[in-house]
TrEMBL record:
Residues 107-217 form the RGS domain. Residues 314-418 are annotated as: Disordered. This is RGS domain-containing protein. It comes from Rhodotorula graminis (strain WP1). Keywords: Membrane, Transmembrane, Transmembrane helix. The chain crosses the membrane at residues 238-261, 273-296, 451-473.
Length: 478
């Protein structure tokens, strides 16, 4: 029987189904998009807003998935026409009030694969949900089911964020860690002495930790906002810089020819367009913004982890395996009845600090890529809400504090939350000619237009300076 008033976790999606909903669609170079480039420069984001309005107005069928890459927040985005990227808040992104590349999924990917600090986001989400469950009813009026739900949620948080063996252990100052460890230990002792007592802490006990992790998360979010404006990865950026410098150098050819052959200085003006265009391309590449991609639409290159997920989806599409793992039972009790957090802390007192769990819990073969097995298959979803009692009884025997399902754990969050082991050997950058996907945020489109216009202004300055120097160079006297 399901726990009253507590939403049950949805069945875990297969890799193929998850790819259909969560992976961004690949784009193609189209001549029509190139013809609309002037509109994107003069009215950035206008075409995206019209597309979002059209998608929002279209009738939705019951079978149609809630695809976040089709503009499900068109109404809200439409109301943010004049909002700048610096005004976008982290709370709005987490709440799902923006479209790609400003979704919770995009922010989570950035934390998982770029900064390796997804635990701060997961702790923030868990504490919000835990506080909501805790404040639902006074302590004297809680039903046994609600007490059990809070206890399971608290136990999962202890094993996830405070156990040394957890890949999502929080990185907090030692004084905060000692304080929360002592609080958790007191709850463990009280629960062992009187099992009928409530074996969990109030949300206020985590306030200091939350303030610290929220500050770290805000710093990561500022870096994330800088990344979303870029439409190219590092390799493409280096190529654009090389191409821009080469184009600028080609503009010197008319000047050199005129000097050597003693021709009219007017022929040197043929280098002006090359000096301007080469500077624009080079400055754009320095900011990881490819002018070619921009001219063909509001697009961005696929990231390395997205390429890997496409490979995973293609590999797993032929498999029909589908498992369901109980989220709240991810932290099962040990044989003597204690939680894995208590067992890990006792082990930590008797032994020296272990290596980080991200690298120590995965076998060496898990970090090698092959067509049969990919590290992304080991990603485990971190849920926010408990499953029903029937799901818990059916899957509790299979779950453990360190287990991972090949098809991923169930999730009820918009982004399908997961964590990425540090042992994953993903390239630092996508290939130069990697496919691109469409961006659906008018705010990002306006910010990207500003970058292109800034590069154009730099191009004008460099063109004037280079042109003045080249025109002043005298011809070679015979």
């Amino acid at each position: 029987m399901a726990i009253p008033d507590v939403p049950a976790a949805q069945p875990a999606p297969s890799k193929a189904d998850r790819a259909k909903v969560l992976l961004p669609p690949k784009g193609r170079y189209r001549l029509g998009a190139l013809l609309r480039a002037p509109n994107r420069v003069l009215h950035p984001g206008q075409l995206i807003e019209k597309e979002l309005e059209k998608t929002a107005a279209a009738p939705k069928t019951a079978k149609e998935p809630n695809d976040q890459f089709k503009g499900t927040t068109a109404g809200i985005v439409r109301g943010l026409q004049r909002v700048k990227l610096c005004d976008v808040t982290m709370d709005d992104v987490i709440a799902g009030r923006h479209t790609p590349p400003l979704t919770l999924r995009d922010f989570e990917d950035f934390l998982c694969f770029r900064e390796k600090s997804a635990e701060n986001l997961y702790f923030h989400l868990w504490l919000d949900e835990y506080r909501r469950l805790y404040d639902r009813a006074p302590a004297s009026k809680r039903s046994p089911e609600e007490v059990m739900t809070l206890g399971q949620s608290f136990k999962t948080a202890c094993d996830t964020f405070f156990a040394q063996s957890s890949p999502l252990e929080l990185n907090v100052p030692s004084d905060m860690r000692r304080d929360i460890d002592s609080r958790i230990a007191s709850v463990e002792q009280a629960s062992a002495a009187a099992p009928s007592n409530e074996a969990f802490l109030p949300p206020q006990a985590f306030d200091k930790l939350h303030d610290h992790t929220h500050e770290l998360l805000a710093m990561s979010f500022r870096s994330f906002r800088k990344q979303v404006v870029r439409n190219a990865d590092r390799n493409r950026g280096w190529f654009a810089m090389f191409l821009g410098i080469l184009t600028w150098a080609l503009g010197l050819i008319p000047t050199i020819v005129c000097c050597v052959l003693d021709k009219s200085r007017g022929w040197r003006a043929f280098g002006l367009p090359l000096w301007w265009f080469g500077t624009v391309v080079a400055v754009g590449g320095f900011g990881k913004t490819c002018l070619v991609i921009y001219l063909f639409g509001d697009n961005r290159q696929l990231y390395p982890w997205e390429r890997q997920e496409y490979n995973d989806a293609a590999t797993m599409s032929s498999s029909s395996e589908h498992s369901s793992v109980d989220p709240w039972n991810a932290s099962s009790a040990s044989e003597d009845g204690r939680s894995s957090y208590a067992a890990a802390n006792e082990k930590r007192e008797r032994s020296p600090p272990a290596t980080p769990a991200f690298t120590s819990t995965l076998p060496e073969s898990a970090s090698r890529r092959s067509s049969q097995h990919s590290p992304l298959s080991d990603l485990g979803y971190f849920p926010l809400r408990p499953a029903s009692a029937s799901e818990r009884s059916g899957s509790g025997s299979r779950s453990g504090s360190g287990s991972r399902s090949p098809t991923g754990r169930s999730s009820t969050t918009p982004g399908g939350l997961y964590f990425a082991p540090a042992a994953m050997e993903l390239p630092k950058s996508s290939p130069t000619w990697e496919s691109f996907t469409k961006m659906m945020s008018p705010i990002v489109a306006r910010a990207q237009r500003d970058l292109v216009m800034t590069a154009a202004i730099y191009g004008l300055v460099v063109m004037v300076i280079t042109g003045a120097i080249c025109l002043a160079v005298p011809n070679r006297s015979r």
